[in-house]
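[retry 2/3] Sperm-associated antigen 1A: previous attempt timed out, resubmitting with same input.
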Amino acid sequence: MKPVKKIPEFCVEAAIFCRRANLEDLLPVAEKQHRIKVADEMKEQGNTLFKKGKFKEAIDLYTEALAVCPLSARTKQAIYYSNRAECFLRVNDPQRALHDCNRALCLDHSMNVKVQWRRSRAYQRLNIDYPAWLDMYCIKEEWKSDKGDTSGVDFKELEGALREKVCIVDKEQNIDLERKAVDYL
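[retry 2/3] Sperm-associated antigen 1A: success.
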């Protein structure tokens, strides 16, 4: 008897996505709008729970909102992923937060600053410092171009932790990461 090959998770996820997209194409517009409304109500309930510090319950509601919301409502989906990512950070699950941040950015790149901030924190908690620093750098540059300066935003905690690690790496590997990041961008 041949051993059964395990199907990679991303293949299963892609197949489910395609099946769901095909089924949603058959839905009338009114049904899609109703689903968006229901998903938004779940998001609002999740936001209320988040404000009360009930992060696991909020995660469940954002997950339900993602399941109900049509795939064609990309901006709405991105918001739910972004909110759920913040909850994952609050319950100390940076890997899942990183996953949700990447999904949100793929769905709607206009959410850049907020989601990159969360992704930077997730990377930092996973001790993946260089991408965390790159996200931080991009956030600051985007903020400067939009607002003129970064004085109104408190980057100090995360930036301090990252700079400390960057300096350690710098001394050990003799690499100027800041120059490298600017060159990369």
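[retry 2/3] Sperm-associated antigen 1A: Residues 29-51 form the longest helix (23 residues).
[retry 2/3] clearing retry counter.
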